[in-house]
Amino acid sequence: MDKIRIETEFDNAVFDLDGTLLDSMYVWEELPSRYIKSVGKIPEEGLAAKVMTFTVDKTAEYFISTYNLDKTVKEIVQEINDMVFHFYSDEVQLKPGVKSFLEELNSRGIKMCIATATDTASVKAALNRLGIFSFFKGIVSTCDCVQGKEESSEVYDKSVLLLNGTKESTVIFEDAIHAVRTAKKAGYKICGIFDKAESHKDEMQTLCDWYIQEWSQLSQGEI
After folding, report:
1. CA–CA distance, 22 with 4 (Å, rounded to integer)
2. How far is Cα 198 from Cα 25, in angstroms, rounded to an integer?
3. Conformation bin of residue 40: beta by default, left when phi > 0, alpha when psi is -120 to 50
4. Per-residue pLDDT of the chain (223 residues; tens, 9 = 90+)
């Protein structure tokens, strides 16, 4: 498989989590139906795809209105986060080649953070278990933002601020087309990562400044 070189100087790297660093998209494919069944309702066809780009709060609002749940958004968010935490603290694994790539960036003094839709507690649990938490300066979750990745670049902008960087000195690593569209529109440089859950591969390749099938394409000396 061809090696990819990021032909630009960059000091900061912002990583999406699910489908990018972690082989975890199955969690989000299973979770909506599992939650709806847990409250005694029958999930609609295609539920996971419908809420895939939603924030957790927006997902909770959708569940309340669609399934007539007698719960608050706060209660549902907590219940969802409890389910997610189990997955991340016990099950999900890194994509092949991730750790060596992070080690390479760290050795070069590149500052890194996570920009994700997953809640911070679950992210920390996974990163600590997998031995990569120390590489990151922080975690920015859309759970703590006004808008999600589909609507706004807020999570990326906050990540750059956390790293004391600039848009021009930052590369974003993403696997999802809705996030790539947002980051591209905001003027960020993007390295796209293939994930089987993302069906818009052709558009990903067109929009991203670089696009890889697997992390080994960005092996040492090719960054």
Report:
1. 20
2. 10
3. left
4. 667 777 678 999 999 999 999 998 888 888 999 999 999 999 999 999 899 888 888 999 999 999 999 999 999 999 998 998 999 999 999 999 999 999 999 999 999 999 998 989 999 999 999 999 999 999 999 888 878 899 899 999 999 999 999 999 999 999 999 999 999 999 999 999 999 888 899 999 999 999 999 998 885 444 5
Q: Identify the three-state secondary structure at position 63.
A: helix
Residues 6+ apart with CB under 8 A from 44: 50, 66
pTM of the model: 0.84
Find out whether 199 and 175 touch, Cβ atoms under 8 Å: no
Tallying the residues shown for the chain, one arrives at 223
Report d(CA 2, CA 147) in Å as an integer: 37
3-state class of 141 per DSSP? strand
Asked if 175 contacts 16 with a C-beta cutoff of 8 angstroms, the reply is: yes
Residues 6+ apart with CB under 8 A from 148: 53, 54, 55, 58, 117, 142, 155
Amino acid at 206: T
- For 6, phi then psi, to 5°, come to -80, 100
